[in-house]
Amino acid sequence: MNLQFFPSRRLALYSVKLYLTRTLAVLIGLVLVLLALDLLGESGKILGVPGNSDADLWRYAGLRLPLLIARFLPFSVLLGTLIMFVSLNQNSEVVAMKSAGVSAHQMLAPLVVASLGLSVAAFIFNETVTVQSARVVNAWSDNDYKPIPPESGILTNVWVARGEDLVRARHVGGTGRGFHAEGLTIYDRERGALARIVEAERAYPRDGDWQLQDVTVYDSGMNVVRRVPEMSALTGVTADQLRLSRVDPDETSFFDLKQKIEEMQAAGKPTAAAEAGLWHKLSGPLSIVLMPLLAAVAAFGLARSGQVLLRATIGMALGFAYFVADNFSLAMGNVGAYPPLLAAWAPFFLFLLVGETVLIRSEE
């Protein structure tokens, strides 16, 4: 019996080469198709803004490309591994390896090591490229593809509750005394009814309240609209309340998100969604390691039995089930129904056990 971790150097390199090339081919084809469909849906909005040109379409494509790669890399690994295993099975290469004493786990060992490398690369790519692209493209789309200010710490579509009142800012940005809000709207409610709507082009925090500029005030009781150059409002609302009211894990790197969670906890804000997103930044890329295990069912069984397609379908179904369970668990963690750690890691360990059980009972 062969008890080595890898079957052999030659066989390990051969299987890893097949694994990486099939995965890359699926990823390129999938991302190009999805990017083309995305551009068809958004090109009218982008070119509809005065001053935008074809260069802005290329800019949008460049910003969306990392997001599509990050989202569909695990799915591409699943499909690429299925294609590889079906090809090996139909060419009787799996039978030859098993005849030489190579176990199912030894066949998967090189793929698992390669998947760990892909997971590390995916994590670094997400932290350095994807979060920046997500931050810019979301701010751009929230601003209806109009030019966005080149400033740091920008957040878009920010909402804050202040007693009965609601406050919305089209975007906030800047740091320290340069912190400001643009497109600020205050929905002033009294006893559950809308009393006034105050809209300001820009607003700055000043000594416990906010200085609003270019203000339009609509009074629902008198049904009149008046305009004033400046006014003070939002007494007691701090800059941190706006800055921490919208923390998107997809737009924040791991260590920045961890720091924001600590700031939210100090401010008494709920952190369930942010904590679930923090842990998912680790479990998401690591899901790549699961894909060869879930797709391995397609590698075994005799090709002449006519069940290769059925086994490939089972492997694909297991992969899809993982993605559904992962999204469901993360959504439950965002609303606080699951603890953040459980929401991020439960699907991974559940399907790790499912994949191992299927593999052991069918092949080992």
UniProtKB/TrEMBL annotation:
UniProt subcellular location: Cell membrane
Membrane topology: Multi-pass membrane protein
A single BP term in Gene Ontology: lipopolysaccharide transport
Segments passing through the bilayer: 20-41, 61-86, 107-125, 286-303, 308-325, 337-360
InterPro entries (alphabetical): LptG, LptG/LptF_permease
Record GO cellular component, one term: ATP-binding cassette (ABC) transporter complex
Keywords: Cell membrane, Membrane, Transmembrane, Transmembrane helix
NCBIfam families: LptG_lptG
Name of the protein in its database record: LPS export ABC transporter permease LptG
